[in-house]
Structures are given as structure tokens and as C-alpha cells.
């Protein structure tokens, strides 16, 4: 186990009807005028937006709405939100939704608290530890952005390049509170539910596949989370109003990406970097894109540490262990993951994802991918441009 720091100050308010508590929390934290940030019309149709508005008014707060969030949130909307917030003297940001709404809100909050263009932050030209206060109301179990330090935004155009999906991570971006009501996830389309569950699994697996030794404590925590999500996703897809399954997914989403399962070890995140380029170029659902990529990544790198893959197979997917052939056990785990993806309706290759990149597009994605890591991505097995090209081609 290596040295680590773990910091997670987000106050989680979990359960039925807790979205009504947002106004009280913002008042307690000193907010006066709130930017309510969201996307789509489902919040209006379900009455959730009206309940949130009323809670803000009951707390004596003013608010301004900003609609328009889409999957793979765009920098153009973030900039619109920054300008609106400055014009309206906003002092608190409240996203309602999943990772896209929350990440977009984090971008607005960074822009409100700093004097640089957000492209500079996302492209690594500046850093900051300043952000305007954020709380959030989660309506999707997926990214864990409600308790994470991460923000991912798509830059539509930058210095001649288009659709760059880039991130910035800092503990200041952890929301001050998160209202999490599993009932708000009942009406999600099955595909979105499954994609979210896959993202939860992947956030844990990106940390689980490590070469750091003597990390059994966090391994066991991660394995328990993975098994719970594996089972809850099957139930939620089959029975959308299963409260316990939805609650498991929603809480697991936060636990998978709040940093806990990465403590004491070197995490990988190559699959995320590879998928980010798919998302940037083809605008695919993030969790689905990860499913389409991971099996190919796993088969490409598993020989680096087959024992870790074998442990995943046995402890997470109940595979029989072949003590005479550890690689066979390792491959069983990869196959079991893909079988699970298929059962919940997720793709296991780019064809099933509906994406058919050309050779030139694959080369472009690979080049952009490794540029984010200075020439390589990942730590389980560092991957250069040619490696990433090979993985994209395997995934076809």
C-alpha cells in the first residue's frame, strides 16, 4: 500500500423526497441567489423542478434557471452559464441531473471564481483551487460526480482541433452537499440505467486493476461494490421501480468515484481516456463506450499481471479458478464481464455501439488520447499511440 490522501467533505442527504432539502442547505451555507442548471424536459414532466423551485422559495432564496445540458456537456453552454451567473449576481450553483449537469455546473463555478478562460484550465495551461459553491440533486446513478473532484467537459473547438473531451480534477470541486433520491431514477430509459451502472463498475475497475502490492483491504471493498452493482443493475433493468436496487446503484455511484477505492494504490484510467476520445468524436453514451472498449483493453494488457485479472474473475464474477492455468482464469473474468454487459443491453465492441471509425479517425483519436498523458496513458500497462490504435482496432 502506497501513501495517500483521502478527502471527501460532501454532505450526502440520501433517501425519498430529499430533493426538497436543497433550499435549506443552500440557505445554511450562506447562498442568496441560485443558478439551477439542468437539461431535458423530464424534470418538468415529473414535477421535480417545481418541487426544487418551491424549496428554494420557501428558504427565502432567489433563483435563475439554465436549461440545455446534454450528454458529454459542452463548453459553449458552460460559458453561457458563466456569463449569466455574473449578470445575475449568482452566488450558488445547483445542478439537477447526472454527471453531465454536475460537470457543466462545476465548469460554471470555476469560471465564476476565476479570471481565466476555461479552455486554459481544461488544456492544462493553468491550475486553480478556487470555485464558486456548488450543491447538487442527483437524478442518475452513474458518474459519481456528486461527490467526486472531477469535471469532464467537451471543448467544441480549440486551436484548430474539434470536440476535445478534457478533464480537470481538484478537491475544491467536490459539491458541498448532494441530495440523492433513488426514486428520481425510476423513469430513466433502460439503456441509460445500464450505461450508468457500467460507468459505476468502470470507475471501480479503473482503480482495481493495479500493480500496487498489499492492497487487499481496498480490494475487498471494491469487490463488494462491484458484486452489489452487478446484481443491482440486473434488477433495475428488469424492474425499474425496485427501490433497493436503485438505492444500491445510486450510493455505489458515489462510492465508486469519491476516491475511496483508489486509496493506497496506483489507479489506471486508460480505458476512460480511450473512451473520452470516442465520446468526443462520436458523442456516444459514456458508460456504453466504456463497455465497448474495456474487453479489448483487458485482453491487450492482462498478461502484465494475470493474477489480478484472475482475482477479479473469481471474486467478482464467481469464476472457477484454474490453479494450473492462471491465464485461463483471467480470460474467464473478461468473458464474464462481457456477458454481464450483454445481459443489461450494453455493447461489447464498437460495432454494437454503432460506431465504425475509419483508420484515420482511429489514428486521430489515439493521438489525442496519448497527448493527455504526455505520450502514454494508463499505469497498469502504459500505452503509447500504437497500443491505443491496436485496442481501437481490436474493439471494432
UniProtKB/TrEMBL annotation:
Coiled-coil spans in chain: none
Entry GO terms, CC: cytosol
Keyword Transferase listed: no
Keyword line: Oxidoreductase
The keyword Oxidoreductase appears for this protein: yes
Start and end residues of each Fe-containing alcohol dehydrogenase-like C-terminal domain: 193-394
A molecular function GO annotation: methylglyoxal reductase (NADPH) (acetol producing) activity
Domain Alcohol dehydrogenase iron-type/glycerol dehydrogenase GldA: 9-182
PANTHER family named in the record: ALCOHOL DEHYDROGENASE YQHD
Full protein name: Iron-containing alcohol dehydrogenase
Lineage, uppermost ranks: Bacteria, Bacillati, Bacillota, Clostridia, Lachnospirales
